[in-house]
Fold:
Amino acid sequence: MNVVDKIKGQLSSKKLIGIIIGIFLTWFIVAFLVYPNLNLLKLTFFADGRLSLEPFQKLLHSSRALKSLLHSVVLAVSLVVTVNIVGIFLVLVTDYFDIRGAKLLRLGYMTTLIYSGIVLVSGYKFIYGDHGVITNFLVQLFPSLDVTWFKGYWAVLFVMTFAVTSNHVIFLSNAIQKVDYQTIESARNMGASTFYILRRVVFPVLKPTIFAVTILLFLTGLGAVSAPIVLGGRDFQTINPMILSFGQSVTSRDMAALLAIILGVFTLLLLTVMRKIEKGGHYVSISKVKSELKKQKINNKLANAIVHAIAYLLFLIYVMPVIIIVLFSFSDSYSITTSTLSWNHFTFDNYAKLFTQASDFKPYLVSIVYSAVSAVIVVILTLVVARILHKYNHKLSTVLEYAMLIPWLLPSTLIALGLIITYDSPKLIILNNVLTGTVWILLIGYVIVQIPFTLRLLRAAFFSIDHSLEDASKNLGAGTFYTLRRVLLPIIFPSIMAVLALNFNGHLADYDLAVFLYHPLFEPLGIVIKNSSTDQVSVDAKAMVFVYSVILMIISSLTLYLVYGRKAK
Structure:
């Protein structure tokens, strides 16, 4: 009888825990993933309780808004062309052609993985901007040169072209390894030229990856924030900066919401296209026995010299911001003001300020806390969801999975505006609290945008576990929680730590989401770096930007090593 009572007690406790988890997940999904976005639609088109097209009329009569839409589309289309050309070239010179110093070139091309976003844009501005190192050098050669030359569409396109090739370096490099060397050799023996082999043998294998990366490029161009704000000037503003501008005024919030919704529709359509491409089949080599790809030599001497020259020119473009940032982080105010380097002005004072002055260290502390806490919360949340998806396969689990992937379909701008507009007054669903203007809303935003990426990785980790291990544990009398804690979690622990590290690293210098949701008294690092990139700030503030950037690059490098380097070993 005691055994029966014990079993009944365990079953009832499991049921109670399941009910609590179910209630919490339902509340979280409704409160933060569904309700804010539906409420944004309601307030935009049904402000008076009936359908209103006034926001569309205001949009059509706003030249600034229409220009921002046009600029976003132009930038997106341009990036598809320029980034694909540069990205495919990078992969070819590092993984396909036999190029001298390919390993060094790869390191240079991968620098965008350790610094990105507002940090990267600020670095390029310091090099090519009004008082930049390159600009000062060019003015000495050409005194009549306009120092504001690096601004507008071409400046934004230039920076973003070299900023977002990381997807090519990661995904296309993996895809090119699937090319069968025997097929290449067969084509070469039949007299095919290097260009013909690339076009008819190599590129068909890369097509699915190129299509997927192209969709991501288009989305990146549409949702660009940092580069247009810092380098676009008045003549080239895209959708997100305009949403930020309209969102700061109560009278124009409906315009901001409509632009965010339009951006969301674009995102949804493009992701739908990408899913269809993925389901449309894969291009594979027809060879039954694959052989490892060997690098191809460029036999034409002139072509070989041109490819080498372009490869190393791109290498300089990639590494120059990193080198300049590191060097000027050890320079005094005179060197930074004049954009000149000298051993006489070498100093460690900038780094000393970071660790001795609370005002300088505070942005780092704020960003570290936000990034660490949001990373831990989202991992715990998605672990629960991934375990449910792993254990149960029914309609409710399917609905749960799709609900948790909602942020993947929406731009961060739309998510941020939904939170701001919905929770700027007490709401019963959050116990009549107000979130807008508090320190909590940015944390919630970070958690929301990290959910899809984290869930997909942890779900994959759970489904890679051999079911026999869990069955054996249960047959030996272990309970569900004990099996989870002592059998399953240790197996996926490396994946958990990898996701934690990547999520923590991804929001340390975030600007795109923080600019909408941050608390004025707790400015995160991305906001401080953006504010310090203007000409009106003090030299000391600019110096600290270099220090912030160097420390961020060190943290990012360590994170990538812990996630990928140790795994490779």
